[in-house]
Amino acid sequence: MPCLSLSVGATPAHNEDHIAILDSPGMTDLLVLDGGTSVAARDYIDEIDGDVVWFVRRFCAAVEPAIAAGLDQREAVHCAIDTVRAAFQERAAHHDVPVHAWPIAALTWIRITPAAGAHRLQLYCLGDCISLLALADGSVRDLDPYTNPQEAVLQTAIARLRAEGVHDPAERHARLLPLLRKRREEQNMAPRPTVLCLKPDGPFAARRHEAVAPAGAFLLGMTDGFYRVVDSYGLHTQASLAALCAGGNLHNALAQLRRHEAGNDAGQAVKKADDASAVWWRAGA
């Protein structure tokens, strides 16, 4: 079962995405994490890589022993976040970290197990990462159709600023910052969080799906930064993106994305370019 991945930051020295491919007896776990870009004035616990990078990497490190202990996806996520929260609190002991500075991330976790000549896919999804299943006949299925409700709010705010003549990305970000910080506080304090966060006040409101991948099918999991070629820029449909990435050819899609971003302003996005990550897995016989 070949598996390939890439994860590239919008700038060479900083990447808040993370891909983990974890193999254990009888199953493979694919984790796609997209850290929410900090809206704080500074980093509090990791001044070198940044708090968000620390968060996504530390979560993946904490989830491995939870998997080894035999926990299911829901249990493993909560166990891992307990570990991460304890580490965060220890590192932040001498800082007054505002709630809007607590790191968050989107997470899609796909567990793959053999099942009667095919493979069973179990998805645990928080936030807006994307998972496509391409079948041998060329059809493509979105395994977790999801629209982020905050995106419409953000697009309305950006459109209002553009109408006011605000086109500079730095000025636009500064004007949007109060909105972004308020939203980050809501995400961190939600009774049933829809994103991965440090201190869930109850179970995560994860979307759970199951699917079957027959022999010859392939899976394409990605962050929304990679998926911009479809939903933001219209360079591809889901089917044409899957066709481009068939055989694990992820770099061509990334190259198209970066060429397009280089020739355009940020448009209706907060950032001109975003971290972009994807993982490709093919179901063998």
Report what the structure shows.
The chain has helices spanning 51-68, 73-91, 149-163, 169-189, 228-231, 238-245, 250-262; strands spanning 3-8, 17-24, 27-35, 104-115, 118-126, 130-134, 140-142, 196-197, 207-214, 218-222, 276-282. The protein has 285 residues and is an alpha+beta fold. The chain has a single domain (3-283), classed as PPM-type phosphatase domain (Phosphatase 2c, domain 1). Strands 2, 3, 4, 5, 8 and 9 form a six-stranded antiparallel β-sheet that branches. The relative contact order is 0.19.
Summed up:
The chain is an alpha+beta fold.
H/E series, N to C? EEEHHEEEEHHEEEHHHE
How many extended strands? Answer: 11
From the 3D structure, determine the CATH topology: Phosphatase 2c, domain 1
Total helical segments: 7
The description of the largest β-sheet is: 6 strands, antiparallel
Q: Please identify which CATH superfamily we are dealing with.
A: PPM-type phosphatase domain
Overall average residue pLDDT: 93
Poorly predicted regions are none
Write the CATH architecture name.
4-Layer Sandwich
What fraction, in percent, of the residue positions are helical? Answer: 25-40%
Strand content: 25-35%
Tell me, briefly, the overall form.
Answer: globular
* Structure class: alpha+beta
Based on CA atoms alone, the radius of gyration comes out at 19 Å
Organism: Pseudoduganella lurida
Protein name: Protein phosphatase 2C domain-containing protein
